[in-house]
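[Solved] Which block belongs to which protein?

Original post:
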Amino acid sequence: MKFIHGRSRPIQVLFLALLPWLLTAVPSKSQPIAGQSRAEYEFGQAIHFSLLVQGSVPISAVTLFFQAAEMPATTTVQIPIEEAGLEIEAAHTVELTQYRPAPFTTITYWWQVTDTAENILDVPAQTLAYEDDRFDWRQMSRDNIIVRWTSDDAALGQTALDVVSDSLPRQTAVMPVELPDPLRIYIYPSASDLQSSLRLTGRDWVGGHANPELGVILVTAANARTAATELRRSIPHELTHLMLYQATGTDYPNLPRWFDEGLARIMEAAPDTNEQLILEEAVANGTTIPFDQLCAAFPLDGRQAVLAYAQSASLMNYIQTEYGNSALNRMIQALADGADCESVTTRVLTISLTQLNQNWLQSLNPQPSLARFWQSSGIWLLLLAAGFGFMIFFLWPVNKGRA
């Protein structure tokens, strides 16, 4: 080895003296940690997460992370490790009686592993499709629409796809929003099966439909002979709720009930004739429900509840006919911007909800021109006639005496 003499020699001596310390100060790098993870579930009961991980340096800590779209935050679970080792098996069970993911949601989960040399590795994220596995689902798809059903009737899936294709143009004319990709539709064999699916996940079949924030459409087709008619009514209805949720986001729960249900009703391809009969009877008897009483909730009584749905559909049809789809779209935008049940009609239609109620009733029960004139001006005609009567009464005797 050739040494350089002169002033550099003290630096060389110092470097040689510090070399052992410098070598030990460089952090060691372990070989990559290899991990295999999986997740299995029992619908409505539990999700089982497991991990098998290997490293070149003993592993000292394992942490599980999981989340879903409806969860407010990511859940973090520190998995206890009894003794650090080069190979570790970790497992964790989430009881679904406490944490209740939405049915048909997607759960994303991943692991973080730390070894004794303080190397940290995130095991790549994986997804778990959490759907109701109590049934053997058949599937049919078109473009970005997926339909699943349980019966052996292949025509049921085709009918559902056709219903969506037929109804989407009517709905996008009012609500030009992006749909979930893919749009998933599940057809349950009965209403009780659908209700049990939602209850197992801590949710209710509110007002005959699932909450639209689930991001899927859940309907029933219990009778093969009437399935096509049921789907032509239920799929456009639920699709409207879903699209309204997409358009209004967190403001969706504050939508006037008459607007939400009324718009969903007019999008149905098979109207309910029984509702129409009940509405006609209420209009004739003057027993309709004022719409300011249908802002937050509908009556629980069977006949009154049917009347509330019928009125809402009729009112939305009136608005669409009188003001056009653009007005409905502006009302949706106003509701997304915080308008309430009363102010949405004032902001968009420039009339109060009370006046809209009166105009709607007038459109259902038009009166002859003479009757409308008498209704609006009759009191003034009576006062005028009374005035003439008093004048004649006081002037007649005077004229008679002068004669």
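(Second protein starts here: sequence line, then its structure tokens.)
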Amino acid sequence: MAERKKKLLVPDTIHRAGWELLKSRPDIEVVAFSNEMPKAEFHALLKDADAVALALTHMMAPEIAAAPRLKAVGRIGVGYDGVDVSALTARRIPLLVTGIANSVSVAEHALYFMLELVKRGRLMDQITRAGNWRERYANPPRELYGSTVLIVGFGRIGTRVAARCRAMEMTVLVYDPYLAAETIAGAGCEWVADLDQALPRADFVTIHCPKNPETVGLFDAPRLARMKPTAYLINTARGGIIDERALYAALAEGGLGGAALDVFEREPTAQDDPLLTLERLIVSPHAAGVTAEALERMSVTTIRNLLSVLDRHPERENVVNPEVLD
């Protein structure tokens, strides 16, 4: 009797490079699914799945319970707030992420946001198209040079943002309570122990920490009030780290110079969201990590991650819950 093929569920949106990698594995049955698939249909697919790759689909306790054969879950990305890690760990199922596959993309997007805000890109485009060249003097662009940026979270992305900001000759402050001051100083940055005391010093605050119970609502109204009224707040991490009602009030009342968001509490963002009416805000659709290059890297890394577990040689450095491997 022929040996049963291992079943791998893959989103139909995954980059073709991931599909190409799977073609070399005749022992794997690949089943594509839609990110918008109804839960009941997804649960039916999970019934005999050995591994699953996730893009937008959540993997919570009901999904995990529906997958009795499950051996590995892979996120096509680095965030995993839509995955019940505890439920996976209880079943000794590893969750794997894509490491640094999109770190450069997100770091560049954060820098792009900084430049777009200070160079007033939309305004300069508008006055040029309208032939109102004299208006360039009314609200002139600013420089990154000599300004101070506060980076919240100094992991794979935060470290890359710091390197790019230092290249722009900015002063770089770092708040990360899980890292030693020596580590941050070694990267040419200034370690700050207290977020509230650091905020009044910063011309830019850029968020690169994970979303968890400690960071949800981290930037609430009192914290935003500690920032300079000319400062800019940037979030390319996860929605919910900033209190969006408080941010709206701060921007609408002139409490901040501006903000840039790639992520939101609710995604997709409602088109009638009051935030979207504000001229001081620039936005993108959770796209910081989805450059053409990053999509290819993430798809390949995700497939390799899952195959490594099925082949019993897991990519340990990409496992979120390594205790399940012991």
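Accepted answer:
You had them paired correctly. Confirming on the second one: The chain has a mean pLDDT of 96.
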